Amino acid sequence: MALPRTYEDQNCSIARALEIVGDRWTLLVIRSAFEGVRRFDDFQDALGVARNVLTDRLTRLCDEGLLRRVRYQDRPERFEYRLTRKGVELWPAMMTLLLWGDRHYAPDGPPALVLHKGCGGALTTRMTCADCGKALEPTDVDTRPGPGAVTPPD
Description:
Number of strands: 4
Strand order of the largest sheet: 1-2
Low-confidence stretches: none
Radius of gyration: 17 Å
Mean pLDDT: 93
Helix content: 25-40%
Distance between the termini: 40 Å
Structural class: alpha+beta
C-alpha cells in the first residue's frame, strides 16, 4: 500500500514541505541539480532511477517552481532542468541533512567533502566556513570525494 502524498489533516509547514520533497527520488534529483546535473539522461545515469519515475519527479519539481525547464536544442527539442531561486533555498536544508548523515551514518568518514572555494575550509552546520568563518552559499563551495567515498570498480 502506498503512503499518501498529502497531509491535509496537519497544519504544519514540515508536512507541507514533505508533500513536495518528501520522497527519496525527489531529494536525490535536487542533490544532483546542486551537483550540476541538468539533462534528463544525466539525471538518470547519476541516479539509476526509472525513466517514468524521473519524469514524474522533474515534472513535479517544475510545477512546484523548484526547477525550470530551459530549451537547449530545437531539433529534436531538448530541455535542461535548472534550479530556481526557490530550489536554491533548499541548499541549507540539504547540507544540514548531509552533515547529519556524515555524523551518524558514515562509519568510514564522509563520502563527500563540502569545502569553501576561498580557503578550503569545511562547511559547518551554520553554513559557514570552519576555517575563515565566511557565510557560505552554494556557489561558494566545491564538493570532492571524502574518506568514505566508494571507488567504482574498474
